[in-house]
Amino acid sequence: MDDSDLFSAPYHVPTAARPLLGLTILVVEDSRYACEAMRLLCLRSGARIRRADCLRSAERHLQIYRPSVLIVDMGLPDGSGADLIEDQAHATPRVGAILGMSGDNYAESIALAAGADGFLAKPIRSLSTFQETVLSHLPADRQPRGPRLLLDEEICPDPIAYRDDMAHAVDLLNEVSDRTVLNYAAQFLRGVARAAEDHALAEAARGLSRACARGGPLGADTARVAGLVQDRLQQRRAI
């Protein structure tokens, strides 16, 4: 199935206020908080969104249908988003626009080298930036005609989605004997906390990442992160 065929239907023609109407965007993102932000951005823009939380899930989606746009987080639980980008960049037929996404500064060059058309830097809050990035990388025959509204609007994801991410992090941090899982947990929490502007948790997660990289003991850093995560779950800190 090719979801981009829906673009040609009269009732899916983009409008000035909803310039992505008719597009289906597959978002490959493991954070519920970040995905909630993407859902709101798509909703405000007129696009339909489908979500995959890992490479395996994304591959199942792509075996069934071809979205108009593919947005891939660079750090996923079962591998690097760069691998999926590279596969889809060389696929035939190709997705109309492939975008990498991350909060890490170094990730943009990796995404582009893998074949991404563009890149979205987290946190993604600006509606106009999101729309412009997607539209600027679509093929010419997918570009909406005429003027469009540039809405200077920022979206605010539901804090409940942040708590869902914290609950997921608890499960990851319980794997105290698995350094690979703890390293992923640190990466996951660093990205989620940065998106939510939770600076204390982001810094603690960064410390756990450094400890994983050094190969030394992880007990103290893991305990610090776990304590902050539990604190957020108990809602003693509002984001």
UniProtKB/TrEMBL annotation:
Keyword Phosphoprotein: yes
Entry keyword set: Phosphoprotein
UniProt modified residues of type 4-aspartylphosphate: 73
Response regulatory domain span: 24-137
Presence of keyword Phosphoprotein: yes
SMART domains: REC
Record's signal peptide: none
Pfam families: Response_reg
Domain of life: Bacteria
Regions annotated as coiled coil: none
InterPro entries, A to Z: Bact_response_regulator (IPR050595), CheY-like_superfamily (IPR011006), Sig_transdc_resp-reg_receiver (IPR001789)
PROSITE patterns reported in the protein's UniProt record: RESPONSE_REGULATORY
Protein name as it appears in the record: Response regulator
Organism: Lutimaribacter marinistellae
